Amino acid sequence: MEKRRPEEEAAQGPPPPRALKRRHGVCEASCRRKGRRQSSRVAVRWRVRTLQRLVPGGRRLQPEQLFSRTADYIFQLRLQVHLLRALSKLYHLP
């Protein structure tokens, strides 16, 4: 297969859609959607675990409780940043 340069691809437009093949009576596009759903679930689980490690006490929380605790933690961190900025202005620190 011949490689095309990006300028040529833009001029010729997108490639034609592939014909959908059937696998065991299921459309290939359906198989791809299921794969995306499964990979997105894995991504969500990974993000929840990461969040559990970042939020103090998060490892023992269920996801619903974790999201509430995360919002509180973000609010607390913002207050700390605000306080530290105020203190640095008070003492004229750069």
TrEMBL record:
Keyword Nucleus on this protein?
yes
Q: Which UniProt keywords apply?
A: Nucleus, Transcription, Transcription regulation
Which terms under GO biological process does the entry name? regulation of DNA-templated transcription
Keyword hit for Transcription regulation: yes
Name by which UniProt lists this protein: Uncharacterized protein
Question: Which region ranges are annotated with the description Disordered?
Answer: 1-38
Q: Where in the cell is it found?
A: Nucleus
Q: What is its main location?
A: nucleus
Q: Which GO terms describe its cellular component?
A: nucleus
Its transmembrane ranges are none
Entry superkingdom: Eukaryota
